[in-house]
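Hi there, hope your week has been kind to you so far. It would help a lot if you went through both lines with me. No rush at all, and the record is pasted right below:

***
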Amino acid sequence: MAAMTDATAVLEACELPDDPAALKALLITERSLRAELGAEVVRLSAIVAAFKRALFGRRSEKYDPEQLDLALEDVEQEFGEQRAEADAGDPALKTERARRRRANRGSLPRHLPRVEVVVEPDSRTCGCCGEALQAIGEDVSERLDVIPAQFRVIVTRRPKYACRGCAEGVVQAAAPERLIAGGLPTEAMVAHVLVAKYADHTPLYRQAQIYARQGIALDRSTLPTGSATRRASCGRSMPG
């Protein structure tokens, strides 16, 4: 709010532009800011009311955490619908809001890989003279995409070898060490589960539900816990 307050500070008369077009643009900007501030007040008031009901309401009115999340989503959706209605009634306000949103959106992190898609027109031939059209520029936009987590199975094979002419026995490589002896998850899977549980606050039963959507039926008792991992790794040297 502080940033918005600074941006909407009252201008002195001497600071106002003399050009009518510039003055009109300034007025549109101020109207857009004022409308957004008013809508933000309404949105935050609804959120505060939802929290008050959850914390101090009668037992029958109190929300569990999931219900509270849904209530907040409803508030955000209603806020978005009200903003869309306001934009539809005032095209100038919609244009100014879109301009400011583009300016404040920022760029996506440079370290993320880029997949470029070039969308060409149906024809690159001049409709008047038939000559080939020349590229004079382009519009570039970026969207954030995601590749869903991909599960895979690590199959470890240990061939057995023996000499047909001798009786020296069978030669076979030792089984690789595992973080949890006889455990199903790899070290990467253990790290994934623990980060989801302790950093992202996703309990094991919900993680099991997520895996079930991928067709992986896991009982949560088979998922690693912090204490089990500590016991398994106790006394083992970590790789350098």
